[in-house]
Amino acid sequence: MAGDVLGQSCVLVVDDEPIGREILAENLLVEGYAVVEAESGEAAWKLIDATPERFDAILLDRMMPDMDGIEILRRVKQRADMRHVPVIMQTGMTADADVLEGLQAGAYYYLTKPFSADTLLAIVAAATRDYRGHRELEEEVKRQGRILACLAEARFVYRSTDEARALSALLANVAPDPARVVLGLSELMLNAVEHGNLAIGYQEKSVLLESDRLHEEIECRLSDPQFAGRQAEVEIRRGDGELCFVIRDQGAGFDWSGYLEMSPERAFDTHGRGIAMSRMISFDRLEYRGRGNEVEAAIRLG
């Protein structure tokens, strides 16, 4: 992964206010991050352009005099080698229209000024955790190779989040661009386990992430008789100019309509971006069916 020291996440802090930049850097350094500082948008872009592989997250001030945060964000997201690097926008502009502009440009994490050190560290931890997971999936895709490129139709069942991650890395190789597909496929398959079969709700997941108990709770529910017999499945079909993945779970379903787009209301949370990111980045078409325990995601072929 990126970072200045093996296993250490590197955060680029971009802020034209020296005192604010120093406080941000100090909090991150104490928490164990490697930190690179940029005092302007132009300086930040030179660093990004010269060493794009160096950064695991970019903490970006929206309002700067020479090149504002939105312009830097757009440049970052135009680079194929940085499309998954998380950009955390720090801003005092909290109107829905302003937040939505950033979300649509690719800032999926937000900090509202003024914010506490705990809030800063929680959002940075979420962003770097998500990015580390994406990088690991991409590496697993490369290891799996293109052995499934000729597959026309198949069905797989799985129970756990570990199985979901491993299977998504394998099945992404069915697609022409596995690195693009694996992020969204993994998110949808994990949702089928966590939120579907194991019935972990949105607010409950927020609390579990904050207390670092999500993995423990998942393992507990996987062995609970109420949930232990449940399986998720992923079906693959190739035809009519599309490659389709259909993912089903045995849960009660959920109201999926509010999760297809990046929402200003959830921009400041530590999770809740997976479905919208899958739709925006990984697939050309994404549709939920029925009560929400079946989703079809497709990419165009040719």
The low-pLDDT segments are none
Mean of pLDDT: 89
Order of helices and strands: EHEHEHEHEHEHHHHEEHEE
Radius of gyration: 20 Å
CATH superfamily of the largest domain: Histidine kinase-like ATPase, C-terminal domain
Approximate helicity band: 40-55%
Shape: globular
The number of helical elements comes to 10
What structural class is derived from the secondary structure elements?
alpha/beta
How is the quaternary structure best described? single chain
Largest sheet strand order: 2-1-3-4-5
Number of strands: 10
What percentage of the residues does DSSP assign to strands (E)? Answer: 15-25%
Query: How does CATH name the architecture of the largest domain?
Result: 2-Layer Sandwich
Kindly provide the name of the CATH class of the largest domain: Alpha Beta
Description:
By secondary structure, this protein is an alpha/beta fold. The protein folds into two domains: 124 residues, Rossmann fold (3-Layer(aba) Sandwich); 156 residues, Heat Shock Protein 90 (2-Layer Sandwich). The chain contains ten helices and ten strands. The protein is globular and about 55 Å long.
Structure at a glance:
The chain has about 300 residues and is α/β, with parallel strands linked by helices. It is built from 10 helices and 10 strands.
